[in-house]
Prior knowledge:
79% of the residues lie in helices and 0% in strands. The protein is mainly alpha-helical. It has one domain: Growth Hormone, Chain: A (Up-down Bundle), CATH 1.20.1250. The chain starts with 13 loop residues before the first helix and ends in a 5-residue tail after the last helix.
Amino acid sequence: MSVTPPRKARLLSPMLLWFMGTMILANIAAQMIFPLQSLYVQELGASVRQIGLFFTIASIAPLFLQILGGWLSDAAGRLQAIAIGSVAGAGAYLFYIFAPSWQWLLPASVLTAMAVAFVSPSFQAFVAQESTEETRGRVYGATSTMYMVVNIVGPMLGGMIAQGLSFRAVFIVAFALYGVAAVIRVIMARVASRKSRSEAGQPERPRLSGLRQSLVSVFGLIAAGGLITWIFISDGVRDVAFGLTDQLMPVYLENEMGLSLMQIGSLQSISALVAMALMSPAGWLSDKKGERVGIVGGFALIAAGWSIFLVGTTFWHFIASRIVTGIGWAFIDPAYSSLISKAVPDRLRGTAFGLFSTSLGLISLPAPWLGARLWESVSPIFPFYIPLVAMVVLLPVMWRKFRLPASPNKAACGAKADVETRPD
Length: 424
């Protein structure tokens, strides 16, 4: 008598697929705006120095919201926190559409920060929740591949609409896409809440004492001198370095290199297309060879792509730069997410992602303003050398320190001796 083999479990659950659909819609809207946002601020009357000041001020709001968003994700539920953030994000687009001057975009930045603070930690934690340790790299690779669609479609669509119509038209279309995603997320949160109540009764209300306990636990992980400590340090250095140039990149490409809005948008899409093609194989590599192989190899490739950008003078040079950068991005994304999710206990993941973002945001807070000052006082290209130097310095540090312990539970304790126990 033949025995029917057991049915192979799906890599992505139905709930995760629905969730990724909303992430794609919402972030196509966001990526229509992000590559061109500094140019919109400039169109509304801001100078280069004021652009740096605007994004520095806009960085303050996340400092107060990201820990709260991460903790609420742990305490109330991933989908509930995402729904709250989505409603705030929809409101931000209205300010972008009707703003008469660049100062009016500051309230939009606060609402956007709230959306990111509530959605981003929950996104990473929800993907980890819907996967096993054995498949986590592949799940992050698959979800990241799906997510890459936003970085292909969004920038090109935004550039086409901005060049053919206006910046305000970009925000109107983005608002429509984000609004659909927000409605679906609210429905998903309500369904998940009803299911939770039917299975486990009325959930306990989140309390500030729980936030305090979670923060103490996560601070312990960061201060212990183990893997989480080194992830935190390396993230801080990279955030400061890239914060100098993130919002100046489109201004540099348009004002100094003469690229059109559509060309600027297409560069981001090219990088994302390359990353999307390689993300799933990179997730497999992370599961098989260890996360640090993908992380260190990816950053080495990004450093190479950044070097091409620094010497580039034509659109084709910048295309080559983005292709190499996209390959590096593909290696880093699933490996980094998998490494953090394995090093932090499930009950603290949302708080940990939120605290990481807040602490790193505080460290890099003056970076946009400082980058603008370096642009004006030294040269427009000078700030772009700093991320390259930072990556080259960090490569040997990450190779030595980004090792998981033999047991994930030991990583949660942050013991320094455990960090070096896993063989190469």
